[in-house]
Inverse folding.
């Protein structure tokens, strides 16, 4: 039996990639200075891929990926590091220009970087921090380097079950009229990540390029640094109660290798037609759930609004308008 037949919520990156040789594959990953980004890069490099990684803090990224560099060297993989601050479109454009100047093609782009539940603030360009960093920065970066995505390549956007907190609000993306709530803003940005995959997939599938969004699961990483531990504990207790009512096992955190598994599954294992324009979780394509369904971060499923093609088009237009660039 192939590993892909038995993958699920507890599968790790090494189980997903078991027996795969990725030599000759070139993969670009954002946010490779901690947590999921480091593990995603490590597992792919350990199987022979050339990994180009980008991070805001180069010193931190170098320290965090020392083992990845060793794994890459031992397995014929390559490893490069670029500066990228997604909260600055100037930095985003400089990073894209560097990649375009090199002219080397990619087989996969994994838009992994992100922030969660930050205090109210703005990016260098005046956008609400979470929408600007998680969505707009990646929107401009990926669209600018789209010519480097070869036929048969994929874009994987890291989303979250947190998309269930909110649809995008294209009338007030910067919370100029809406009272700011950190998880509401996070939900909007994570819905935007799914919708961007839907819009990108529609535009590029004809040339054999597919895009998907993934929810990694609930993992203890630096992402939660802005969240009050008491709120996290209350959330876990709520999830455990919900699961007990459904006759399920108590909630368990995913490990980082389990959390990164869906990213690498969607990037190099799943069939492109299976995941194109879809939302994936636990190493499979997520089911659409009703808007009235519970919004527990441990529940499975994707809201219909996050996959709606008209919603995706409206977001695309608004994103171009905000970034001042047409794609």
């Amino acid at each position: 039996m192939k590993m892909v037949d038995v993958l699920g919520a507890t599968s790790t990156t090494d189980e997903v990639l078991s027996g795969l040789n990725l030599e000759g594959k070139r993969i670009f990953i954002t946010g490779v200075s901690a947590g999921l980004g480091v593990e995603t890069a490590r597992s792919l490099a350990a199987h022979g891929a050339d990994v180009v990684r980008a991070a805001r803090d180069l010193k931190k990224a170098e320290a965090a990926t020392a083992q990845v560099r060793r794994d890459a060297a031992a397995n014929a993989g390559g490893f490069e590091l670029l500066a990228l601050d997604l909260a600055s479109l100037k930095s985003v454009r400089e990073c894209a220009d560097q990649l375009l100047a090199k002219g080397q093609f990619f087989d996969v782009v994994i838009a992994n970087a992100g922030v969660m539940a930050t205090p109210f603030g703005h990016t260098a360009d005046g956008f609400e921090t979470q929408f600007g960093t998680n969505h707009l920065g990646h929107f401009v970066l990926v669209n600018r380097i789209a010519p480097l995505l070869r036929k048969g390549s994929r874009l994987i956007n890291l989303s979250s079950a947190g998309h269930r907190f909110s649809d995008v609000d294209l009338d007030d993306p910067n919370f100029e009229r809406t009272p700011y709530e950190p998880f509401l803003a996070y939900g909007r940005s994570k819905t935007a990540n799914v919708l961007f995959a839907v819009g990108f997939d529609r535009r590029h599938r004809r040339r054999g390029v597919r895009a998907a969004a993934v929810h990694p699961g609930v993992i203890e990483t630096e992402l939660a640094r802005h969240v009050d531990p008491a709120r996290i504990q209350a959330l876990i207790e709520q999830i455990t109660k919900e699961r007990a009512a459904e006759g399920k096992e108590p909630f368990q955190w995913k490990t980082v290798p389990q959390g990164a598994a869906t990213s690498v599954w969607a990037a190099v294992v799943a069939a492109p037609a299976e995941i194109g324009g879809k939302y994936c979780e636990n190493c499979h394509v997520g089911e659409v759930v009703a808007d009235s369904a519970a919004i527990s971060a441990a529940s499975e499923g994707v809201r219909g609004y996050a996959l709606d093609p008209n919603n995706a088009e409206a977001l695309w237009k608004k994103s171009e308008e905000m970034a001042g660039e047409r794609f």
Notes: The two ends are 43 Å apart (CA to CA). The longest strand covers residues 149-158.
